[in-house]
Amino acid sequence: MIHVVAIITAKPGKREAILDAFRANMPAVHAEQGCIEYQPVIDASGFSFQTEIGPDSFMVIEKWSGPETLKAHAAAPHMAAYAAKVKDLIADRRVHVLETA
After folding, report:
1. Strands (DSSP E) along 1-101, which ranges?
2. Which among 13, 21, 49, 55 would be 20 to 30 A from 93, CA to CA?
3. Among candidate residues 6, 3, 71, the one with its CA nearest the CA of residue 33
4. Position 61 confidence tier, pLDDT thresholds 50, 70, 90
5. Integer angstrom CA distances of residue 5 from 13, 63, 69, 90
6. Which whole-number Å values give the CA distances from 64 to 23, 55, 79, 90, in the listed order?
7. What is the model's pLDDT at position 13?
8. Mapping DSSP to helix (H, G, I), strand (E, B) and coil, where does residue 92 land?
9. What total number of domains does the chain contain?
10. Sheet holding 2-10: strands in order across?
11. Tally of CA atoms within 13 A in the half-sphere of 94 that contains its CB
């Protein structure tokens, strides 16, 4: 299994616009072969011990059945369309591809 944690930082005030486009794309991603989990997450409140990602950021938590399915996801036409919709709204994007230790 391959795990992905992506940290997306929006330009100020643009996080919800990116999340709207992200949520609209989720059904297509969930239908992809090998997709186990794919969801956006934001800071939870009430935990004094956490390191917050901030009001303009969100993370994407992903699980894929293997490297081939993640590579296919990255090349999918709906991902290119999503990227085109949000490219001018994103300040920074960091993608961490991980495997079980």
Report:
1. 2-10, 35-41, 57-64, 90-99
2. 49
3. 71
4. very high
5. 22, 9, 16, 16
6. 18, 28, 15, 24
7. 97
8. strand
9. 1
10. 35-41, 57-64, 2-10, 90-99
11. 8
Say whether 31 sits in a helix, a strand or coil.
Answer: coil
Q: Rg of the Cα trace of the chain?
A: 14
Domain enclosing residue 36, as ranges: 2-99
For residue 28, the one-letter residue type is A
The amino acid sitting at 7 is I
Residue whose pair of structure tokens reads 């297509």 in the numeric block: 28
Q: Which residues contact 18 (CB under 8 A, 6 or more apart)?
A: 8, 10, 58, 86, 89, 90
Specify the DSSP element, H or E, that contains 79: helix 77-86
DSSP 8-state code for residue 45: S
For residue 46, give Cα distances in angstroms to 24, 50, 59, 89.
Answer: 29, 9, 18, 29
